[in-house]
């Protein structure tokens, strides 16, 4: 069995396929997989020469055989994949002369598309495409699945899940890193390893992109973090160009020398990629034949990751931002009910800017579809922030939905010591990977003593083992009880923290601010307790990073304990502040009108506050805000104010509006009922800057904008228009190819909502084009759209 | 003011107008942020050219009908086909700031476009010197979408260059390049020097465009 040999003895992959096919006449742009059927003998011949050279595992010629990349009028995918596996099996019969056991791997390469949010391919569609290939491969008799040359962590997750969930074959995965140790989509080595090991791949590593020499530092990095056997498949050097042709110039001898070094460092499965030939593999096998492999060592590192980077717990304390959570927050609840994604995302971005390392995400609210909302918020957050996320829910369906589509290895909040809960949560951790927070509470409630909580922690860690979940993937929350009702609460928590670290060696988290519930001036208690908790072994506090008191404790602690080398971070944050004096407030030299016209946010905020002392909110809107916006808008039309200025003013006005709205809400009043406008970037189009510009300006003029986003199918736009009885829809498209979707949307709107007006805009549009597709109005620029919207609603 | 700053300001629609200090500062800070986020990558190959008839160009597996490109390439024996991108992190920035700071989004967008042009210009200068050694002169680069050069060719161009694997450049269903700050282009190689130096912007028939290079 392959898995029994893996990691214990050195195994050999084959070398390049593409370069050999090109030398046999494959044209750039041609589909190599078609050769499985049209030039089967050539393919068998290549595989055979690799077996003869000493390869134990040969990859089928199916790199691009997935429904997204492979489109051929003559052959179906199943035929191609089946032939690919059969060719390799046939070659094994012909090429293995020494009776050794060899394996045929179903080779799975990327789809060639970028997944959302970077591109337009959905995670589910990528999964389905891979699933189809995986099933055909297993049916055809592949011995393992080798997912390779991946440069996007999200895509490799889709592929690994497809392999794991639809076949029983071993799964290997290798990625392309660049010379800086990054994927093309930005992920670093620890992030990739955290995710792949979480998904329980059998071996992982690096292929393509570079020669063996350049891979050495990457391998070194992989060895630091990886616990599973490691695969290394370099190119025959860096690609070079001669007469426009790509070639590689590391000769077999030299290649083999590097590969011996790579085995010595700790690789377990080696082979070659682009530019390597049977001669390279033969030399590599000869040179390393007598070498033994270093066993893979289990790394005791608690890591969570996003698609970009990993966060390691257990050293310097980390900050988990707690603000994405409706508990006790009226505005946040409203945002969830209104599906106000911007509000939620802003909470995330603010915490990131304030220094959070991980963001907790809790969207639980009665009457909302939590799984759907959780999934959406996770996806949206990952499109604007590269911080790892903590999926915080008691709804197991929501937890699974979020873990499945999360790009990386998430933190999961939480499991507890109740058997029923562990039975539900641990299978998810096993399936998708993740670091799970174990709450020290069980069927008997929260133990009153530190020892009691330590006991529950132990129970959780033991139960996890049954699923093959290592304690490095468990972090314990010993729970902070409010001292106003539990006088010994803080002492018990601190003692339990310390003991859990000492006894089990696991990382810990704590929701710090519970401690002061019911007390006056809570920040003082919270921030001091936070320091004490860190001193007692808290790995990550779940806190509000916008709280200056908490951050002061944090930065001070890190400086004091030498987690902050040369106090650099401390100095960066506090270097410009004098002790005892708070940061000076923005001066109010400008009037609100001036602040808006100049596009100064802080000044607009301040000036609004000042005005509110003297004037009624609605008066401020009508006498200051709107006239300022009008001045800027007219300037834009005349060509004396330009787009960035127009938008800076719009953003400043938005802040002024927010201040006014707060006051109105406190007084129980409300801004008058607004006119609703739908905005959407049409199907197929993913460039939504124009639409977002129009949105900001319409909101300034008190329109209630229903932003449906980008790449929006016509039905979604029309359904929303019908459901919400919309009078005006604004559509944007950037390219001629997507104006077609615009036309379709308009047609459908005319059928189902004939009284609704449509305004259009976008780079390729003009009045003639807009007329041709049947729009009511062409907005040459954002202000024109605002004026048109005003006219539409005035007519009513 | 350096060339790319001037170019970014042109993309922002300022035309010949002077830029105000506030915006200029924004432009500068956007360039600074982009210098961290952008990661320029390029891949190219040289292909033989054939012209079976007027207005039709064969370039590797590409069969292009385009009067504008034909004019650009007439007299060339070969052409460089290239794909380049500033990478996905630029898009992450654009998405991040589109929540609450649209002024920064449009400015980042303009700066990134200027940065990509600058990156290509620098690369092209090196290419020009290399090609000169081999006896070739280069023509201005010409991208799908310029004039009548159909963007439907993007798909084949990306496949011929294997851009998804090499530089992470892919296409959406609607033929849009992702990451968004990316280009593909053709650069003709001719054995004789010509004075054909019309660049992309000037070849466009939309003469009333606010962003037109003056």
UniProtKB/TrEMBL annotation, chain A:
One of its GO terms (molecular function) is metal ion binding. Residues 674-796 form the B12-binding domain. Zn(2+) binds at residues 208, 273-274. Residues 1-288 form the Hcy-binding domain. It comes from the Bacteria. Keywords: Amino-acid biosynthesis, Cobalamin, Cobalt, Metal-binding, Methionine biosynthesis, Methyltransferase, S-adenosyl-L-methionine, Transferase, Zinc. Pathway: Amino-acid biosynthesis; L-methionine biosynthesis via de novo pathway; L-methionine from L-homocysteine (MetH route): step 1/1. Its EC number is 2.1.1.13. Catalyzes the transfer of a methyl group from methyl-cobalamin to homocysteine, yielding enzyme-bound cob(I)alamin and methionine. Subsequently, remethylates the cofactor using methyltetrahydrofolate. Signal peptide: none annotated. Residues 579-672 form the B12-binding N-terminal domain. GO terms for biological process: homocysteine metabolic process; methylation; tetrahydrofolate metabolic process. It is an enzyme of class 2 (transferase). It comes from Dorea longicatena. InterPro entries: Cbl-bd_cap, Cobalamin-bd, Cobalamin-bd_sf, Dihydropteroate_synth-like_sf, HCY_dom, HCY_dom_sf, Met_Synthase/Corrinoid, MetH_bac. It catalyses: (6S)-5-methyl-5,6,7,8-tetrahydrofolate + L-homocysteine = (6S)-5,6,7,8-tetrahydrofolate + L-methionine. This is Methionine synthase.
Automatic annotation (TrEMBL), chain B:
It comes from the Bacteria. GO terms for molecular function: methionine synthase activity. Gene3D superfamilies: 3.40.109.40. This is Vitamin B12 dependent methionine synthase activation subunit.
């Amino acid at each position: 069995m392959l898995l029994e040999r893996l990691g214990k003895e050195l195994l050999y992959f084959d070398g390049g396929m593409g370069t050999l096919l090109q030398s046999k006449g494959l044209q750039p742009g041609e589909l190599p997989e078609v050769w499985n059927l049209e030039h089967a003998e050539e393919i068998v011949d290549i595989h055979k020469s690799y077996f003869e050279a000493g390869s134990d595992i040969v990859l089928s010629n199916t790199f691009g055989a997935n429904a997204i990349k492979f489109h051929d009028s003559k052959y179906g995918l199943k035929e191609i994949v089946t032939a690919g596996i059969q060719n390799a099996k046939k070659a094994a019969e012909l090429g293995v002369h020494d009776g050794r056991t060899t394996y045929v791997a179903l080779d799975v390469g990327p789809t060639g598309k970028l997944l959302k949010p970077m591109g337009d391919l959905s995670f589910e569609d990528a999964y389905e495409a891979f699933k189809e290939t995986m099933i055909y491969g297993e049916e055809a008799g592949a011995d393992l699945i080798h997912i390779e040359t991946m440069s996007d962590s999200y895509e490799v997750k889709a592929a690994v899940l497809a392999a794991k969930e639809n076949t029983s074959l071993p799964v290997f995965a290798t990625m392309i890193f660049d010379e800086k140790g990054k994927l093309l989509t930005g992920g670093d080595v620890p992030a990739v390893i955290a995710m792949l090991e979480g998904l329980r791949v059998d071996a992982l590593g690096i292929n393509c992109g570079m020669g063996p020499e350049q891979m050495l530092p990457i391998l070194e990095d992989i060895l630091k973090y990886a616990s599973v056997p490691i695969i290394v498949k370099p190119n025959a050097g860096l690609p070079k160009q001669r007469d426009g042709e790509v070639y590689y110039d590391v000769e077999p001898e030299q290649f083999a020398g590097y590969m011996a070094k790579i085995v010595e460092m700790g690789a377990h499965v080696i082979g070659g990629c682009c530019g390597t030939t049977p001669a390279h593999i033969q030399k590599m096998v000869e040179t390393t034949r007598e070498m033994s492999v270093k066993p893979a060592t289990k790394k005791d590192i608690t890591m969570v990751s996003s698609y970009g980077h990993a966060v390691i717990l257990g050293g310097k304390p980390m900050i988990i931002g707690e603000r994405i959570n409706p508990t006790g927050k009226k505005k946040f609840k409203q945002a969830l009910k209104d599906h106000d994604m911007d509000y939620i995302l802003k909470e995330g971005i603010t915490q990131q800017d304030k220094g959070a390392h991980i963001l907790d995400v809790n969207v639980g609210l009665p009457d909302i579809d939590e799984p759907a909302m959780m999934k959406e918020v996770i996806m949206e957050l990952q499109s604007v922030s590269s911080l790892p996320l903590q999926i915080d829910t008691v709804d197991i369906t929501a937890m699974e939905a979020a873990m499945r589509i999360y790009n990386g290895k998430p933190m999961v909040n939480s499991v507890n010591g109740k058997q029923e809960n562990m039975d539900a949560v641990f299978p998810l951790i096993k399936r998708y990977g993740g670091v799970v927070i174990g709450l020290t509470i069980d069927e008997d409630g929260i133990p009153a003593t530190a020892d009691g909580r330590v006991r529950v922690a132990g129970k959780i860690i033991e139960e996890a083992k049954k699923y093959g979940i290592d304690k490095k993937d468990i972090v314990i929350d010993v729970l902070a009880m409010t001292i106003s009702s539990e006088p010994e609460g803080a002492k018990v928590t601190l003692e339990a923290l310390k003991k859990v670290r000492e006894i089990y060696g696991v990382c810990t988290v704590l929701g710090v601010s519970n401690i002061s519930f019911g007390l006056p001036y809570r920040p003082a208690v919270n921030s001091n307790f936070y320091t004490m908790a860190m001193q007692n072994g808290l790995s990550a506090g779940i806190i509000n990073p916008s709280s200056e008191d908490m951050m002061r404790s944090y930065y001070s602690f890190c400086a004091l304990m030498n987690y902050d080398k040369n106090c650099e971070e401390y100095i960066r944050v506090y270097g410009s502040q004098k002790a005892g004096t708070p940061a000076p407030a923005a001066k109010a030299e400008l009037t609100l009108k001036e602040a808006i016209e100049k596009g100064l946010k802080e000044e607009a905020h301040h000036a609004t506050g000042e005005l509110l002392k003297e004037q009624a909110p609605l008066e401020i809107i009508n006498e200051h805000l709107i006239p300022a916006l009008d001045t800027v808008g007219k300037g834009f039309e005349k060509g004396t104010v330009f787009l960035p200025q127009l938008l800076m003013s719009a953003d400043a006005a938005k802040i002024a509006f927010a201040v006014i709205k707060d006051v109105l809400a406190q007084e129980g009043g409300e801004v008058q009922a607004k006119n609703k406008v739908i905005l959407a970037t049409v199907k197929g189009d993913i460039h939504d800057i124009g639409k977002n510009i129009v949105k900001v300006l319409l909101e300034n003029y008190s329109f209630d904008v229903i932003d449906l986003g980008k790449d929006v199918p016509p039905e979604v736009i029309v359904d929303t228009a019908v459901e919400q009885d919309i009078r005006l829809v604004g559509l944007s498209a950037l390219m001629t190819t997507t104006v077609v979707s615009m036309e379709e949307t308009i047609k459908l709107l005319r059928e189902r909502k004939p009284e609704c007006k449509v305004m259009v805009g976008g780079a390729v549009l003009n009045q003639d084009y807009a007329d041709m597709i049947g729009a009511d109005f062409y907005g040459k620029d954002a202000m024109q759209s605002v004026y048109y919207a005003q006219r539409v609603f005035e007519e009513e | 003011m350096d060339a790319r700053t001037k170019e970014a300001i042109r993309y922002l629609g300022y035309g010949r107008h002077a830029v105000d200090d506030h915006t200029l500062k924004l432009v500068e800070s956007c360039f600074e942020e982009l210098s961290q986020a952008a990661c320029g990558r390029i891949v190219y190959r040289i292909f033989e050219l054939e012209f079976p008839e007027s207005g039709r160009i064969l370039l590797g597996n590409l069969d292009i009908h385009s009067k504008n490109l034909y004019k650009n390439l007439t007299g060339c024996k070969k052409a460089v086909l290239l794909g380049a991108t500033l990478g996905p992190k630029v898009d992450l920035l654009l998405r991040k700031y589109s929540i609450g700071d649209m002024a920064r989004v449009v400015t980042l967008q303009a700066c990134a476009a200027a940065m990509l042009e600058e990156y290509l210009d620098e690369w092209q200068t090196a290419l020009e010197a290399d090609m000169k050694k081999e006896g070739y002169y280069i023509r201005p680069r010409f991208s799908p979408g310029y004039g009548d050069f159909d963007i439907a060719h993007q798909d084949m161009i990306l496949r011929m260059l294997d851009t998804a694997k090499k530089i992470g450049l892919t296409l959406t269903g609607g033929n849009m390049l992702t990451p968004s700050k990316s280009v593909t282009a053709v650069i003709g190689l001719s054995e004789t020097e010509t004075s054909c130096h019309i660049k992309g912007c000037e070849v466009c028939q939309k003469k009333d465009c606010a962003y037109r290079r003056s």
